[in-house]
Design goal:
By secondary structure, the protein is of the alpha+beta class. Helices cover about 25% and strands about 35% of the residues. The strands form two sheets. A two-stranded antiparallel ribbon has the order 1-2. Strands 3-4 form a two-stranded antiparallel sheet. The longest helix is centred in the N-terminal third of the chain and has 17 residues, at about 10-30. The radius of gyration is 14 Å and the shape is globular. The two termini are about 15 Å apart. The model has no long low-confidence stretch (mean pLDDT about 90).
């Protein structure tokens, strides 16, 4: 089992760039590369994905969670 977890503070621009990198990998149909702290994880992307979106708002704090999952065997 491979696990990759990262929590960082970024600007809106940096967050958008990270999402664009993921979107490009999904659009191109190639593998998804995640890089942080000198560590690189590459995983194949399946043809059909499950997308879960969750939004929570409580006063001044907003939390948006995006979860993508797929079968690695399809990649």
């Amino acid at each position: 089992m491979t696990e990759f977890s990262q929590d960082e503070r970024v600007s809106r621009q940096q967050a958008a760039e990270r999402l664009i990198d993921i979107a490009y990998a999904l659009t191109a149909g190639g593998p998804l590369d995640l890089i942080a702290a000198g560590r690189r994880i590459t995983v194949p992307v399946g043809k059909e994905l499950r997308l879960e979106r969750c939004l929570r708002s409580n006063g001044d704090r907003v939390q948006l969670e995006l979860e993508l999952s797929w079968s690695a065997a399809e990649g």
